[in-house]
């Protein structure tokens, strides 16, 4: 047999390459589907509650010009007592007590004008938190 004939004969190359490509495509497709399926399951996070809060500002009696800020739950999800909900301002914080539902309130006293106040939710396990309401005191 002539050595030149061996290199010139390409009949077996095409089926071998075809099988290799089919196996490679199958492996890649399996990896993509597997990572999608298992990746979605690992990304499920508890979402913050969908609750509405109303902010009320009253003049602070001992420090004129400052405000006593009250946040009231005015609708939406009831937040169980196992989860923490607090009204936060630079002047301090006040936690809502018990299940937070319509009518529940928290108050922070002596807050300066044009200050951001927030209602912050923290999950029961403490791993997740979110600002669920935000407002600013009058100027």
From TrEMBL:
Keyword annotations from UniProtKB, A to Z: Membrane, Transmembrane, Transmembrane helix
One Pfam family it belongs to: Pilin_N
Domain Archaeal Type IV pilin N-terminal: 11-83
Domain of life of the source: Archaea
Transmembrane among keywords: yes
InterPro entries noted in UniProt: Flagellin/pilin_N_arc, Pilin_N_archaeal
Transmembrane segments: 12-38
NCBIfam families recorded: arch_flag_Nterm (TIGR02537)
Protein name: Type IV pilin
Organism: Halobaculum lipolyticum
